């Protein structure tokens, strides 16, 4: 049915490719390309052994639009799934415009030097996508991605009006190390040390696609300022903090009638203590330090010392729980639900060779590609997840490894069980 | 009266030299020598400006016995005060034997590669010192040093028998940094991560100068295993942990009738947390790590990142309290005292340009030299502090900046106010 080109060869790409191979009725041809072809070959070998499906592999510099155009032409791809770095979203979107094929990614474009999470530059490509007659699906991971679909499903099927959304992301995985990071420690640091931000409706709120970050509808908080102990279903109580996360930008525009939306993530006390101590001694510095005549960037040296994030998958135990607490009106009455997925790190690793953090992002990337491939989600232009009918995506989640549950709560009820 | 040669140009040396210059009736000529002559010149300049006393300076490699011999001959020194590294005790003792001049130091010899604190190699020079007709005074700092003198004073003047000694070393100085170390972090780490050890009398105890560390009289404890909150006079409650410290070796032999002696030091919770976190990420490793093609020893890179210990003096506020709780018998009755000195970091810095940790070591180093210079402490061979009459040293402490106090306690009374 569709010829899929996947760019990137990290953990998320591994999961998306394995899952695409499991859906070979939809994806009749799959090409996996990245800067390091050997990584693609290793994934292809894994898939051949496990599923007896053949995957093509190629070397590609995703920063080079022309090279991507040539690869698309050579493979005959109809859909490009971008699970490379978010730095490369724009060049890959341009390659899709030039070749008139559909584009899907899992995370906001970021400039490598001045990271700022916003959809502006990707939304600005809407006209070009329309003119090319293609669809761009932005943020088809878990959060953003499934969290947007949870909200859309609630909005379309369960509520007449939604007023409050809290997205809660808990990773209770334990890799057995006193300290290690799932990503580059620089990105982890940014999460912990950045100011938080959430959205609430004010007289100035508008649904323009150009976001005015200085508007009073965006409330800024100090790093880790808002936090509490939350009792996650099937996991238990975890320290949880308010952060900014990119789905707030699109959901605050697309969920009509919304009064407030916030995002929370768990950080263990020990993790935060380590980050603080490392910051105190200067190990999180990103500038060069002269040491015995050599210039060393402390955070890069820290990365050298820490366990390779790729090695964590094989030893991570425990679960993730990511979901949304949604409150609003149904048939004139107050209603509140908790809709979430629980994912087990060891089960993910057994199936795909990657742990839960990659799995929860890679599976929705494949599902988004599948719905586009089958024309179930269709349109011309650049879209966020919640702009489509949520039902077919919710159905796919149930059968592709990310089953979800809904708890009916009392309106105003909270699983917050204490302060930090 | 005496011609003094001081080796070393760190904080302790600075204090000892300033104090020697304040006692110019005793020290008619003072030469300050170290590997880096400019450091000596800076101290000499400070002393000239403050006290209008002239100090000679010289460059010396303290590892080179012959060079030291030549310097002693050239200066005509009669006493050598070693406040260089403890690695150099043996070569400097040999230079004193060859030139027949008295030797004084403040800390146990250590081998740079296999640090082990014991007096064995220094005590073995006793015969050669006797033959040369010279005196070697070992450990004339604060602890060891003043703590030994406190015990000797109690033994000689206040008690008929001493049964229990607890030495308690509290540094409540605050340099205003979240984390910094007073010494090389490698030495700080060793203190925190080494097993503790204390002495108690058993049937196997003997007063032989060769210590049998495997004897059951030495009780080994895990790092930080024994700890409590202690209410230090004039400071307050601080977390305090049992460590091994070198004065236990000589005091357990020289204080007759002793049943138990232990040593305790304060470590703040934040300090220990930082050390633990740094250890967890590998930053305290002493082996080489390959980073971007360069070999880096993590703990050395940490030292580069941390504030220079020499820069802490000017900004350290607060006090030290080092003392001994001594329990025994007097006139057939139980008796217990707390004998201690309190030292103020800022006052030390104002007087000498070095903070309290250097001051409390440098002042006793000068006093030991002074008592030897004046012949008040005399003898042939190698001695520890407690082998002399404590009274003249106690009198000097009162007038040289380290006044002491005695609190009469109820026998069995404790200033322990809680567990950690």
Key terms:
420 residues, alpha/beta, Rossmann fold, Dihydrodipicolinate Reductase, domain 2, ten-stranded mixed beta sheet, Sacchrp_dh_NADP-bd (chains A, B)
Quickly name the level 1 CATH class of the largest domain in chain A. Answer: Alpha Beta
Return residue spans of chain A where pLDDT drops below 50 for at least 5 consecutive residues: none
Number of helices of chain A: 14
Most residues in contact: chain pair: A-B, 25 and 25 residues
Structural class of chain A: alpha/beta
Mean of all residue-level pLDDT scores of chain A? 95
Strand content of chain A: 25-35%
Shape of chain A: globular
Superfamily (CATH H level) name of the largest domain in chain A: Dihydrodipicolinate Reductase, domain 2
> What does the largest sheet of chain A look like?
10 strands, mixed
**Helix proportion of residues of chain A, in percent?**
25-40%
Q: How many distinct domains of chain A?
A: 2
Radius of gyration of chain A: 21 Å
CATH topology description of the largest domain in chain A: Dihydrodipicolinate Reductase, domain 2
Number of strands of chain A: 19
In quaternary terms, these chains amount to homodimer
CATH architecture designation of the largest domain in chain A? 2-Layer Sandwich
Distance between the termini of chain A: 52 Å
């Amino acid at each position: 049915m569709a010829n899929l080109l996947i760019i990137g060869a990290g953990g998320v790409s591994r999961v998306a490719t394995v899952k695409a191979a499991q859906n070979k009725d939809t994806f009749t041809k799959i090409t996996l390309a990245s800067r390091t072809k050997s990584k693609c070959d290793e994934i292809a070998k894994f898939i051949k052994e496990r599923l007896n499906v053949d995957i093509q592999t190629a070397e590609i510099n995703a920063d080079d639009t022309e090279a991507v155009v040539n690869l698309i032409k050579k493979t005959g791809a109809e859909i490009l799934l971008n699970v490379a770095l978010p730095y490369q979203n724009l060049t890959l979107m341009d390659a899709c415009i030039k070749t008139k094929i559909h584009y899907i990614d899992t995370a906001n474009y970021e400039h490598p030097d001045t990271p700022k999470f916003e959809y502006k530059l990707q939304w600005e490509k809407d006209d070009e996508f329309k003119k090319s007659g293609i669809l761009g699906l932005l943020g088809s991971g878990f959060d953003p991605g499934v969290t947007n679909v949870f909200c859309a499903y609630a909005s379309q099927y369960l509520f007449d009006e939604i007023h409050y959304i809290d997205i809660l992301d808990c990773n209770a995985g334990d890799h057995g190390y006193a300290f290690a990071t799932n990503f580059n420690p620089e990105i982890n640091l940014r999460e912990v040390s950045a100011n938080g931000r959430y959205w609430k409706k004010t007289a100035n709120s508008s649904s323009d696609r150009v976001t005015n970050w200085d508007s009073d509808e965006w409330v800024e908080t100090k790093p880790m300022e808002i936090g509490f102990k939350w009792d996650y279903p099937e996991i238990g109580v975890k320290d949880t903090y308010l952060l900014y996360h990119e789905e707030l930008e699109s959901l605050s525009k697309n969920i009509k009638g919304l009064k407030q939306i916030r995002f929370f993530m768990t950080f263990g006390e020990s993790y935060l203590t380590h980050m603080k101590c490392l910051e105190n001694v200067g190990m999180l510095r990103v500038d060069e330090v002269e040491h015995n005549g050599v210039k060393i960037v402390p955070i890069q040296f820290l990365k050298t010392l820490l366990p390779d994030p790729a090695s964590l998958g094989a030893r991570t135990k425990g679960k993730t729980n990511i979901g949304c607490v949604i409150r609003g009106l149904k048939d004139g009455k107050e209603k509140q639900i908790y809709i979430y997925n629980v994912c087990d790190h060891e089960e993910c690793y057994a199936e795909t060779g990657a742990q839960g953090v990659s799995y929860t992002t890679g599976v929705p990337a494949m599902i988004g590609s599948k719905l586009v491939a089958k024309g179930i989600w269709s349109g011309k232009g650049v879209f966020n997840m919640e702009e489509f009918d949520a039902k077919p995506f919710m159905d796919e989640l149930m059968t592709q490894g990310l089953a979800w549950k809904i708890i009916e709560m009392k309106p105003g009820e909270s699983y917050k069980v204490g302060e930090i």
